[in-house]
Amino acid sequence: MAPSSSDTILEADYRDWIALLKPRVMSLVVFSGAIGLLVAPGHLNPVLAFTAILCITVAAGACGAINMWYDRDIDAIMRRTRNRPIPAGRIEPGPALGFGITLAAGSVLVMGLALNICAAAILALSICFYVFVYTVWLKRRTPQNIVIGGAAGAFPPVIGWAAVTGSVDLMPLVMFGIIFIWTPPHFWSLALWANDDYRRAGVPMLPVVAGAKETRRQILLYTIILVPLTLVPYMIGFSGIPYGLTAGLLGIMFLERVYRVLTDRQDAKGNSLTNDAPAKAAFKYSVLYLFALFGALAIDRLIG
Amino acid sequence: MSEKSPLPAPAAEAKRRRRGRSWAILIVLFGLCALFYAITIVKMAHF
């Protein structure tokens, strides 16, 4: 929504440009990228390791800026996003797009020059996937947007691994798979209670299209697939018993929370009668779950 | 001698924001220079 002439719109300060990078999303990207670096076989100079993580972080921020440029119309409709710098009128769309493209190109270039071509190529692929496949193609067209688009957020550990080794192996692909399968239950737990926003904006999130009941069922289904997948690093001998036990325990706790989401008190249409308290708890736990799981993987590798 | 009249509030705020942006750009530029220098030193050490 364009600001009216009576509004006093101040020009953007540096915090608005930082907000374009979606810093809250960045934390998981930085963390999973760093874990990819840490668990990869081989040694990387600390300066180059820092550069690799910086490139992954900046690329993620660039994706956020391009996403905000493309989604500025629906951001203006949703309560959660309408105060973002572009819909609020503090930053013009053109400069925001230019900012995103410059950061994306710069991060790939520096990754290629400082680390290796393999890492730079996967970084470029992840940016293209997020922008073209998720943002432009899937997000507004299909309730599977989060499932396939989740791949974009699963790239960082693969990039971190490639930065050290110059190649891709089975283990980074398993880490990719874990984030890929984790994303739907994580995001749909949020979508269950942010449902109205997505409905108003016409974004076909699963709760909007298939209803809350089906969403709860799908959350459980993906979590049931996720838990055994997290045990693969132990089963293929990449990590030891400490990781295996931690992954099992964290998985059981995740399943328990997701089961509560499924059995939440609800009306005939599936609308929660508890203000979606179990979904909120599952969403919070899902963030902690991934941090704890990958943290355990890194610690197991470092002490093992 | 007449005193300088203070800037109206929106103009003062805009100036403050511009100054903040300029400092941020300066810090980023210095950071990048330091990083590229460090990368060059590390890369040269491998030759």
List the defining traits of the structure above.
heterodimer, A: 304 residues, Four Helix Bundle (Hemerythrin (Met), subunit A), 74% helix, disordered N terminus
Name the CATH architecture of the largest domain in chain A.
Orthogonal Bundle
| Spatial separation of the terminal alpha carbons of chain A | 55 Å
Q: Number of DSSP helices of chain A?
A: 15
Bin the strand percentage of chain B. under 5%
Largest interface, per-chain counts?
A-B, 15 and 16 residues
Question: pLDDT average of chain A, as an integer?
Answer: 92
Low-confidence stretches of chain B: none
Structural class of chain B: mainly alpha
- What is the CATH topology descriptor of the largest domain in chain A? Tetracycline Repressor, domain 2
How much is the radius of gyration of chain A in Å?
20 Å
Instruction: Tell me the quaternary state.
Output: heterodimer
Proportion of strand residues of chain A = under 5%
Task: Provide the CATH top-level class of the largest domain in chain A.
Answer: Mainly Alpha
Low-pLDDT windows of residues of chain A: 1-7
- Measured between the Cα atoms of the first and last residue of chain B, the distance is 68 Å
Largest sheet of chain B: none
Order of helices and strands of chain B: H
Helix amount of chain B: over 70%
Would you write up a description of this structure?
- The complex is a heterodimer of chains A (304) and B (47).
- With 304 residues, chain A is mainly alpha-helical.
- Chain A contains 15 helices and no strands.
- Chain A has helices at 14-20, 23-39, 46-70, 72-75, 93-115, 117-138, 145-154, 156-165, 170-193, 195-201, 206-209, 212-230, 232-235, 241-262, 277-303.
- Chain A is flat, with a radius of gyration of 20 Å.
- Residues 1-7 of chain A have low confidence and may be disordered.
- In chain B, 79% of the residues lie in helices and 0% in strands.
- Chain B has one helix at residues 9-45.
